[in-house]
C-alpha cells in the first residue's frame, strides 16, 4: 500500500503498536498486515489419504490436501467443505480439527480438519494436475507443497518430532 485509504497522503514506515508499520503522517491511519486464512481437509477413505497435485502457484506440481482461502461470510468449516468439493469432487464430513499451522515467513494461517469421504467421485478439478488416495506408506513426502502440508500429515500419522516444531 502506497497511499492512505482515508486521505490519500503517501504512507511512511515508522514504529506503531510495537512494530514498524505503514502510517499516514497526515491523519494517523495505521496499515496492519493481517494474515489470510486458509481452510483445508485431510480426507480419509478406506485407510487412504486424498491428496491433490497443484496446478497453480504457489507449489505448482506439488502435492497437498484440498483447501484454500476462506471467503468473507463463510465459516471455517463451510470453507473447508467447499474447497474440498471444488478440488476433488468429493463430499466429506469433518471429523475433527487436526491442527492450526502458521509460520513466521508466511502471511497464511492454515486450519486443517480431518474428514471422512461421504460420496462423490475423486476427480481432477481445474486447480489440480492430479488427485489420488494414498496409503500412509505411499505419501510423496519429498513432493509436498508446503510446510503446513508436511506438519499436518505428520500430526495425522503421529510422526511429528520435536525438531518439526521449529
Describe this structure in words.
The protein has 166 residues and is mainly β. The chain has two helices and ten strands; from the N terminus they run βββββββαβββα. Strands 4, 5, 6, 7, 8, 9 and 10 form a seven-stranded mixed β-sheet that branches. Strands 1-2-3 form a three-stranded antiparallel β-sheet, with no helix packed on it. The longest helix is centred in the middle third of the chain and has 13 residues. The two termini are 31 Å apart. The C terminus is likely disordered.
Q: Beta fraction of the residues?
A: 35-45%
- Gyration radius (Cα, Å) is 19 Å
- 3D shape: elongated
Give helix and strand order, one letter per element, not per position: EEEEEEEHEEEH
Tally of strands: 10
Termini separation comes to 31 Å
User: pLDDT under 50 segments (min length 5)?
Assistant: 161-166
Summary tags:
single chain; 166 residues; mainly beta; 7-stranded mixed beta sheet; 2 helices; elongated; disordered C terminus; hydrolase
Q: Outline of this structure?
A:
By secondary structure, this protein is mainly β. The chain contains two helices and ten strands, in the order βββββββαβββα. Helix content is 14%, strand content 40%.
Layout of secondary structure:
Elements: E1 12-16, E2 19-23, E3 30-31, E4 36-45, E5 48-54, E6 63-64, E7 67-69, H1 76-88, E8 90-101, E9 108-120, E10 128-134, H2 147-157
Parallel strand pairs: 4-9
Antiparallel strand pairs: 1-2, 2-3, 4-5, 4-7, 5-6, 5-10, 8-9
Amino acid at each position: 500500500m502506497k497511499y492512505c485509504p482515508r486521505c490519500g497522503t503517501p504512507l511512511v514506515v515508522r514504529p506503531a503498536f510495537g512494530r514498524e508499520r505503514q502510517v499516514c503522517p497526515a491523519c494517523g491511519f495505521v496499515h496492519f498486515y493481517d494474515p489470510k486464512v486458509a481452510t483445508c481437509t485431510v480426507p480419509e477413505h478406506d485407510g487412504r489419504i486424498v491428496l491433490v497435485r497443484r496446478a497453480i502457484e504457489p507449489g505448482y506440481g506439488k502435492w497437498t490436501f484440498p483447501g484454500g482461502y476462506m471467503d468473507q461470510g463463510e465459516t471455517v468449516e463451510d470453507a473447508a467443505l467447499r474447497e474440498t468439493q471444488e478440488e476433488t469432487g468429493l463430499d466429506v464430513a469433518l471429523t475433527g480439527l487436526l491442527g492450526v499451522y502458521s509460520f513466521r515467513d508466511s502471511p497464511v494461517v492454515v486450519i486443517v480438519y480431518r474428514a471422512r469421504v461421504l460420496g462423490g467421485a475423486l476427480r481432477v478439478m481445474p486447480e489440480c494436475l492430479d488427485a489420488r488416495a494414498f496409503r500412509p506408506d505411499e505419501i510423496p513426502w519429498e513432493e509436498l507443497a508446503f510446510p503446513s502440508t508436511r506438519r499436518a500429515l505428520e500430526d495425522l500419522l503421529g510422526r511429528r518430532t520435536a525438531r518439526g516444531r521449529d
